[in-house]
Amino acid sequence: MTISAPDTIYRVETRTRTSTIAGLVGIVLILVLFAAPAFASRGLIQDLFFILTMLTLAQFWNLLAGYGGLVSVGQQAFVGIGAYALFAAVILWGLDPVPAILLGGVAALVLAVPFGFFAFRLQGAYFAIGTWVLAEVVRLIVAQWRAVGGGTGTSLPRTATENIIFTDQIAALFDVRASAARDILAYWLALVLAILTIGGIYWLLRSKRGLGLAAVRDNPQAARSVGVDAQRVKWFVFLTAALGTGLTGALIYMQKARISPDAAFSLNDWTAYVIFIVVIGGIGTIEGPIVGVLIFFLLQTLLAQYGAWYLMILGLIGIGVMLLAPRGLWGSFSDRTGIQLFPIRRRLMGGPLTIKTPSREE
Amino acid sequence: MSIISLDSVCKSFGALKVADAITFEVREGEALGIIGPNGAGKSTLFNLITGNIAADSGTVHFLGEDVTRQSAMQRCLNGIGRSFQIPQPFGKMTVFENLLVAGSFGQGKSERAVEQAAADILDRTGLIGRANTVADSLSLLERKRLELARALATAPRLLLLDEIAGGLTEGECSQLVGTIKDIHATGTTIIWIEHVLHALTSVVERLLVLDFGKVIAVGEPAGIMARPQVREIYLGIEV
Ligand SMILES: Nc1ncnc2c1ncn2[C@@H]1O[C@H](COP(=O)(O)OP(=O)(O)O)[C@@H](O)[C@H]1O
Ligand SMILES: [Mg+2]
């Protein structure tokens, strides 16, 4: 259809001044984080490793649930399978743990195909329960795998952990012991993974695919009617999240160097906490999980000694935030101030639209 | 040549037959109006044409191709665009983004390639001032306009409009009629379900009357409205 010549020239903007500043601050922050091993204690490096890996898991869960509308409570299956693939590759085939991380991602991707095939038959709450049941099934099967320790688990052999690539150079560079050098290596890998994840998700959301994703989340029926392949979008998001979650799982257990099915497939550690992080931070935003993971870490540091009370307090805080700020802490802040560090809105400018500044018109 | 043709299309919801051996065709470039009482199966007929609902039996041909088994997505890509009677916006996206999705996916182009056209459509449908507003905060009338605008953004060869004139003032209604006439003038085939008969008959060349899932009359509007059977259904409705 062609209609009379356009009378006004419009343009589209996404970036805002805040986001430009945020970008510059982000670059400085990244440089500081890369340099951290030069001045930070080993304990702090381990804490940062924990924060970064949880952040990565949270970003992928947010991609699934917040952008894709797929509320999975079975993501621990991909953490576990990624971790076990790494252990199998190191123990059974003698692979170096660092390249074995990639194998963990591939294993999660492969598992995601049958997993999604079953789970996508279910909708809403049934999808959530279905993913949890499937994850349990995977855990039970892996617990039968004798070669990697069966139900009790196993450790990475010393010969493998002592010869991880780059650790000698890192030990020499910072003048630390081999075990500390391994932590630094794991930390750097976690940092790279977190940056690639956030950068990749932001890039995705700003691409045409991101538009299709948002459309399917908002109204699948209408999305199909304007030519969006809703099924393909769902699969794309699910497979991407599985890959990223598997890579993170492998990295986490490379650093722990000890694995068991109950720990690696823990619903609590790898999905419940992750959901808590996303929900209190703000679902459906990239900033939300960043805020959420910092709060989660703070709470854990302050309250972990109280055992069962800790979980109850986490639960109460989660419920409180959901009631008082349903869009999470970042979501409420952003609604009130209009500030977005990772803006994805395509704002139409030009013609009659230049007079108004629609930055607050979220 | 007929752009769309239905042959004995049937559809039941349980015991309720909402499409009863529906057979008709529309020529390329034509404008067809569909009327009938509430619950006659008009919106369902649209869903059968677009693939949002699968037919129980019968065939649908679009541009000579059998599309009966095609998905709604595929039919959109082939050139069928539609509005929903109950607006179905992408609620958390802005009005402009709603059109960007439709333009880029519906036409298989990049966002860049469709943004100016999307803005022009907003201009013509009176939504330009709301371009950067999230769709959830639009009024019902604005949502209906968005339905039209978003369908246009897919650059359809066949445009299906489902009751978009209800609730408009005289001025708004004649503006809408003007817009639809413009779209028609560019060669787009239109099928329009509408209760506002004077708006409908000022655009369409033929009327199709649907009652209890059956086509009871098709033809030139004045002749159709003169039929006793149609007058009976429309008793009390101003022509
Ligand atoms: N998805 C559905 N499931 C069951 N019944 C439906 C469904 N959609 C429509 N109907 C019924 O089919 C009949 C025709 O509906 P519809 O096509 O919307 O009529 P119209 O658009 O002519 O008012 C109505 O009685 C309606 O209740
Ligand atoms: Mg209807």
Structural commentary:
The complex is a heterodimer of chains A (362) and B (239). Chain A is mostly helical and 362 residues long. Chain A folds into two domains: 37-265, no CATH class; 268-338. Chain A has 16 helices and four strands. In chain A, the strands form two sheets. A two-stranded antiparallel sheet of chain A has the order 1-4. In chain A, helix 2 packs across helix 13, helix 3 (76-93) packs parallel to helix 5 and helix 13 (267-281) runs parallel beside helix 16 (328-337). Chain A is globular. The two termini of chain A are 31 Å apart. With 239 residues, chain B is of the alpha/beta class. Chain B has two domains: 2-79 and 156-235, P-loop containing nucleotide triphosphate hydrolases (Rossmann fold), CATH 3.40.50; 88-153, no CATH class. Chain B has helices at residues 42-50, 72-78, 95-106, 111-124, 140-153, 170-185, 197-201, 221-226, 228-233; strands at residues 2-13, 16-27, 31-35, 57-62, 65-66, 80-82, 158-162, 189-193, 206-211, 214-219. In chain B, the strands form two sheets. A six-stranded mixed β-sheet of chain B has the order 6-7-8-3-9-10, with helices on both faces. Chain B has a four-stranded antiparallel β-sheet with strand order 2-1-4-5, with helices on one face. The radius of gyration of chain B is 17 Å and the shape is globular. Chain B starts with a strand and ends in a 6-residue tail after the last helix. The mean pLDDT of chain B is 94. The interface between A and B is large, with 40 and 55 residues. Adenosine-5'-diphosphate binds at residues 13, 16, 18, 36, 38-44 of chain B.
